[in-house]
Amino acid sequence: MILLAEFNKDPWDVDKANMTLDALFELWLEKKAPKLSDANPSYLMKTAYGHCKSLKDHKYASIKAYHMQETIDSCGRGYSTQWSIKALWGHLDKFALELDITL
């Protein structure tokens, strides 16, 4: 209900069919990241996104779980960075679902 009220106050113009990972991330940063808890500060999500840049121009709806897992496996970092990447994918998936972007 809160999200619907916010949307009605400031509707997001979203081209669902062509929404890329980069566009979704930028919109998520604007709309959702400021509301993150201290457990997931936005600077960690921005750092995690740096490990997903290889997919930035892909349409979000075409990104599969194995693509997401590959960003985690190939990051070359420790558990905390891998956890941040996984958390970011979770945030983006939830946001994409709210915007009816996912298939």
Question: Summary?
Answer:
It is built from five helices and no strands. It is an all-alpha fold. The longest helix has 20 residues, at 79-98.
What is this structure's SSE topology?
Elements: H1 2-9, H2 21-31, H3 42-50, H4 65-73, H5 79-98
Parts with pLDDT < 50 across at least 5 consecutive residues: none
User: Structural class of the helix and strand makeup?
Assistant: mainly alpha
Taken together, the total number of domains comes to 1
Name the beta content range.
Answer: under 5%
How far apart the termini lie comes to 23 Å
> What composes the largest sheet?
none
Mean pLDDT reading? 86
- Number of DSSP-assigned strands: 0
User: What percent of the residues sit in helical stretches (DSSP H or I)?
Assistant: 55-70%
* Outline: globular
Give Rg in angstroms: 14 Å
SS summary, helix count = 5
Order of helices and strands: HHHHH
What does this structure look like?
This protein is an all-alpha fold and 103 residues long. It has one domain. It is built from five helices and no strands. It has helices at 2-9, 21-31, 42-50, 65-73, 79-98. Helix 3 (42-50) crosses helix 5 (79-98) and helix 4 (65-73) packs antiparallel against helix 5. The two termini are 23 Å apart.
Keywords:
103 residues; 55% helix
